[in-house]
Structure formats: structure tokens, C-alpha cells
């Protein structure tokens, strides 16, 4: 992180987090997706589901493979009720990458 976000940048993250992939939002204002996630958590706009150890189902893997490349981690985690870390690690394990293209 280079420094704190301006009020306008913070407002931008909070306004757009449920309308576009977090990776795209972060890139548009020059911050990392993890920093954007941190802002959302600090402001109560993003709450990770209770951390529970559970196996990934074939249906969840299929959903991740289909949606993650275009929509990103936040889109997937909200729909599957998984944490940021769980989704990003599973995507890495499956060789799925965010492209930002629909």
C-alpha cells in the first residue's frame, strides 16, 4: 500500500464492489485487490462467512471455473459462501485465473 486512500477512492470501492469484479475496481484506482478487500472489511461492506473447513464440491469447482475468470474472487465468494483465501487458493489449485473478460 502506498498510503491511505482519498475519500473519493474509498467511496469508489464501496460504491462499485457489488457491481464489478474487485480486481477491476482496484486496478482502476491503482491499488491491489487485497487492499480493496481490506477497505470493504473495515467498513463492514464485506463479511467473510464463518471460517469452516469443508470440502469443495464438484458443483462449486464447476461454478468457480465458469465464473472466476470473468467475475473474480468476490463474485465467487459471495455466491458460494467461501472466504477470499479459500476461493483464491482453490482457483490457483485448479489453474483458473482472472481475466476480466466476459
What does this structure look like?
There is one protein chain. The protein is mostly helical and 102 residues long. The protein folds into two domains: 7-42; 58-94. It has six helices and no strands. It has helices at 7-16, 22-29, 33-42, 58-71, 73-80, 84-94. α1 runs antiparallel to α2 and α2 packs across α3. It starts with 6 loop residues before the first helix and ends in an 8-residue tail after the last helix. The model has no long low-confidence stretch (mean pLDDT 84).
How would you describe this structure in keywords?
2 domains, elongated, single chain, 102 residues, mainly alpha, 6 helices
